[in-house]
Amino acid sequence: MIKLEHIKKQFGELEVLKDVNLNVEKGTVTAIIGPSGSGKTTFLRCMNVLEQPTSGKITIEGQTVDFSKPVPKKDIINLRSKTGMVFQQHHLFPHFTAVENVMEGLITVKRMDKKQAKDKALGLLKKVGLSDKADLYPFQLSGGQQQRVGIARALAMEPSVILFDEPTSALDPELVQEVLKVMKELADEGMTMIVVTHEMKFARDIANEVIFMDGGYIVEQGSPEQVLVHPKEERTKQFLQLIQ
Ligand code: ADP
User: Fold this and answer.
1) To test the ligand 1 pocket, which listed residue (8, 11, 48) has its Cβ within 8 A of the most ligand atoms?
2) Where is the ABC transporter domain (predicted)?
3) Are 206 and 213 in contact, with CB atoms under 8 Å apart?
């Protein structure tokens, strides 16, 4: 369903992604792990076209964009609409309540009327366990609750895939599980997800595929068992030793 071919990304002289290739099947969870600075976030941002790859092709559900050529803006907008993104920090609008945050994209992008958007947004807040928090503002919510609003907001756009960039790394330890629980439920429902994470237990238990990145390359990939328990590459072994 998702295919990334020969993705390269340079920031000036710095080559951050050197030649990254990845296939993701519909309904699977892919965990991306690796040391800080290895290009994980940049890779995710390229998939969402928040960063435009310097070259390479991205295909999502039948639409292919070749970044070696000038890309029409409408192709970027179309490709981006197939992906939802959940960031490390929630990026909610501070002056909107939880339900208004989820409604925003439904009204401005999906052109729903207010009543319809509110019904849908309330349904999504219920799904992430926040029915009783709909009318609170972000500052009145815990970090974990804010992240769950962020997930509901991403779901509202009905993307083909949700990209998570270290969704729990800015949270206090006691709030991590409530976010991972919602992510597990989404995975169980067959949502296609790509997750940059330091949560090795989550990667081991939930992911279908684990990718280890280092130095702008995918160094190793396979099942959680293959990559996390029986890594073949020296760099993967060293990384896993460091974090355990
Ligand atoms: P990771 O997510 O694995 O920690 P990143 O993708 O965030 O890695 O960063 C990889 C490298 O790219 C780092 O050296 C970082 O400084 C650099 N980088 C990321 N974004 C930019 C940017 N917008 N401009 C310049 N350099 C960047």
Assistant:
1) 11
2) 2-240
3) no
